[in-house]
């Protein structure tokens, strides 16, 4: 089984249909044809560029380029975590916490998966390393962003409760315990739901892609399971790290709640 | 001038023979550049209700929050002077905040029960402090706290319903029960009845009268009648200073300063 070559004019057909959809939404005055077209255009440009980068990367197969690419992805993900917050920790802490926790979890899990489980030769072979890291970072980013947002937002809304618990002589870890649990849950829930629904409701994208590319379903399934576990590990430890450091940052050494370390909420 | 430089009320109440609970000397507090408390001196006595009155922004709540080190939530706060509780410096570096706060309960303006059952609202902190062990002990403590807060009869059949399901006045009494369950020495109240209706307010005032047999109570209030009704001592704050501090009867019948008199009689503030 091989892959059927896809040429640009075939893509143009699909693009034409997207334009038709945009035309329909414009006719129905849904007010979204413009953003639909812009998003579609962004897809084309961004993916084409990534394609070029990946081809160069695959051809070179040098560790230094893989590392540089990984770092670039990490920093962009860190920025994205920050952009998704209602309230940021001031002084660059949200970016710092997000980036650090994604670095710790995603990179560790990616390297472990590459060296111990999959074992390509060399271990940093871009064909495996970059897509794996991409999937890990993408999901970890969602988990970390959701968890941090829930943590800071709930802490602000339940300020009275937290302060009252401090006043009852509870140490800060106990006073924010419930909120921390809630934040962890909201970070991990998407992944748990995805695992629960995998194969029954939805066919995961990576597996579908591999099957389309001609891989035997049995092997594609094994890869998908591996990836889902890796993503869960990455998201779980990333969220754990972010919530731990983030909630620590909300208190100081004198057991005071420091909401002044948060930015004003975005309207 | 009747401002007491020693911190003791210029009382004519000769029966007053109370033991010192909190001693404050030369307490000043700055938010950045602006000084919110100006060299306060005051002695607060055990097992009494002391009311802090004065116009908005005069430093009453700021002062209250100095007593359990809750104040310095805001960056740039600087505190000078002495706050001593049972002879120990509250602001000392080596003071254990967690232990201090256990001994100084706080009731806020807006009741804020935890999103847990009525029972758990009360039992959680004592369990954490190892004040109770067996289930029976816990049950006993919860009942005692609720009885002391005058809420037992109303909630004894629904202890496992959420605390948030109660009415505003009941919620505030639940918060008081929660505060007394950890057996503090002092209870600070920051306008505890300002969000309540008159009937709930009266209930809480009766409660303060009972609770002062066991606890030292310091309350901030905007309600002159309330101060007159519940407080043994009253301190009048103005622009970050204590203008007058006296036993409540004297303060309300023959205030020694013009400012206090104007405020009490409603001509000012």
UniProtKB/TrEMBL annotation, chain A:
Q: Which InterPro entries match?
A: UPF0014_fam (IPR005226)
Question: Where does the secretion signal sit in this chain?
Answer: none
Q: Which UniProt keywords apply?
A: Membrane, Transmembrane, Transmembrane helix
Q: Where in the cell is it found?
A: Membrane
Q: Where are the transmembrane segments?
A: 6-28, 35-57, 63-81, 93-116, 128-148, 191-213, 225-246
Report membrane topology: Multi-pass membrane protein
Q: Which family does it belong to?
A: Belongs to the UPF0014 family.
What name goes with this protein?
Answer: Iron export ABC transporter permease subunit FetB
């Amino acid at each position: 089984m091989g892959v059927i070559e896809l040429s640009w004019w075939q893509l143009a057909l699909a693009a034409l249909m997207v334009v038709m959809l945009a035309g329909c939404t414009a006719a129905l005055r849904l007010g979204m044809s413009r953003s639909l077209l812009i998003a579609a255009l962004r897809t084309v440009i961004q993916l084409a560029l990534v394609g070029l980068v990946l081809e160069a990367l695959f051809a070179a197969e040098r560790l230094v380029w893989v590392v540089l690419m990984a770092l670039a992805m990490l920093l962009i993900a860190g920025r994205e975590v920050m952009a998704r917050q209602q309230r940021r920790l001031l002084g660059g802490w949200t970016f710092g916490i997000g980036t650090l926790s994604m670095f710790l979890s995603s990179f560790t899990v990616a390297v472990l998966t590459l060296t111990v489980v999959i074992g390509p030769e060399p271990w940093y072979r871009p064909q495996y390393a970059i897509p794996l890291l991409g999937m890990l970072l993408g999901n970890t980013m969602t988990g970390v962003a959701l968890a941090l947002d829930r943590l800071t937002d709930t802490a602000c809304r339940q300020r009275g409760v937290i302060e009252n618990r401090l006043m009852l002589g509870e140490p800060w870890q106990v006073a924010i315990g419930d909120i921390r649990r809630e934040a962890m849950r909201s970070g991990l829930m998407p992944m748990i739901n995805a695992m629960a629904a995998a194969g029954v409701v939805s066919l995961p994208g990576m597996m579908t892609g591999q099957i389309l590319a001609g891989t035997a379903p049995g092997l594609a399934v094994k890869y998908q399971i591996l990836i889902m576990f890796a993503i869960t590990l990455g998201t779980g430890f990333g969220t754990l790290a972010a919530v731990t450091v983030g909630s620590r940052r909300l208190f100081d050494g004198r057991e005071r709640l420091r909401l002044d370390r948060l930015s004003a909420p975005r309207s | 001038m009747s401002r007491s430089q020693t911190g003791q009320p210029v009382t004519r109440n000769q029966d007053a023979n109370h033991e010192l609970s909190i001693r404050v000397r030369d307490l000043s507090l700055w938010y950045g550049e602006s000084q919110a408390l100006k060299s306060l001196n005051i002695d607060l006595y055990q097992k009494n209700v002391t009311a802090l009155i004065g116009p908005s922004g005069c430093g009453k709540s700021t002062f209250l929050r100095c007593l359990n080190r809750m104040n310095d939530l805001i960056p740039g706060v600087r505190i000078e002077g002495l706050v001593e509780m049972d002879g120990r410096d509250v602001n000392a570096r080596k003071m254990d905040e967690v232990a201090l706060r256990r001994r100084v309960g706080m009731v806020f303006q807006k009741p804020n029960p935890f999103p847990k059952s009525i029972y758990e609202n009360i039992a959680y902190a004592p369990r954490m402090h190892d004040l109770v062990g067996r289930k029976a002990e816990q049950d006993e403590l919860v009942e005692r706290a609720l009885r002391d807060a005058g809420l037992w009869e109303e909630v004894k059949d629904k202890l496992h319903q959420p605390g948030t399901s109660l009415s505003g006045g009941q919620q505030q009494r639940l918060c008081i029960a929660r505060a007394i369950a950890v057996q503090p020495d002092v209870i600070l109240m920051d306008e505890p009845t300002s969000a309540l209706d008159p009937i709930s307010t009266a209930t809480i005032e009766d409660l303060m009268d009972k609770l002062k047999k066991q606890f030292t109570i310091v309350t901030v209030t905007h309600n002159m009648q309330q101060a007159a009704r519940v407080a043994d001592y009253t301190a009048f704050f103005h622009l970050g200073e204590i203008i007058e501090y006296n036993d409540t009867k004297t303060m309300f019948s023959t205030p020694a300063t013009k400012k206090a008199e104007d405020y009490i009689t409603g001509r000012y503030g």
